[in-house]
Write a structure and sequence with these properties.
Helix content: 40-55%
CATH topology of the largest domain: Tetrahydropterin Synthase, Chain A
CATH architecture of the largest domain: 2-Layer Sandwich
Largest sheet: 4 strands, antiparallel
Radius of gyration: 33 Å
Length: 167
């Protein structure tokens, strides 16, 4: 085989590969163009427009107060041989109705979170002036995270005491 024929074969193979690459790029580009124009032209279903895809950063705040009264808690506080019994009840005030519904739906888990938090209180400091504020912030903090498998957090404005007895 002569050198010229060998170069012609290499050149022909190169041209075939180049043609296949260009054809593949053309088909891929055309497919992508068709796909994007079809997606842009297709109407968004009504259900997709109404349902938020991600949690709203700020809930819609109701003009009317939204409350949920919880059954009172009885907690024994023990620390360093010192013991007290705390009987405490409160009502939660929410920013939005969805937060109230979630807490009500997951009430056993919510009560468990609160009981665990209350059981960690120091029985020697339960009568201090700061204790009610500490309890309010603790209850808000433990109820704020989402309940599994929900993805939304709760928005609690206030914790209002209805009972507070220490023995």
């Amino acid at each position: 085989m002569s050198k010229n024929e060998n170069n012609d074969k290499k050149s022909g193979s190169f041209m075939k590969v180049l043609l296949i690459i260009l054809l593949s790029l053309g088909i891929g580009g055309g497919g992508m163009w068709y796909y994007t124009t079809q997606i842009a032209a297709s109407p968004v279903p009504e259900a997709a427009r109404q349902q938020p895809q991600e949690p709203a950063a700020q809930p819609l705040v109701s003009a009317n107060p939204i409350f949920l009264e919880l059954e009172p808690f009885t907690v024994t506080l023990n620390q360093n041989g010192f013991s007290r019994v705390l009987y405490i009840g409160f009502t939660l005030r929410f920013e939005d109705e969805n937060s109230r519904k979630r807490v009500e739906k997951y009430l056993p888990e919510a009560r468990s979170r609160i009981l665990i938090e209350l059981s960690g209180l120091d029985p020697e400091r339960i009568h201090s002036k700061e204790t009610p504020n500490v309890i309010k912030e603790s209850v808000k903090r433990v109820l704020q995270p989402a309940f599994f498998p929900e993805h939304f957090t709760q928005h609690i404005n206030d914790v209002l005491f209805t009972n507070f007895v220490v023995q």
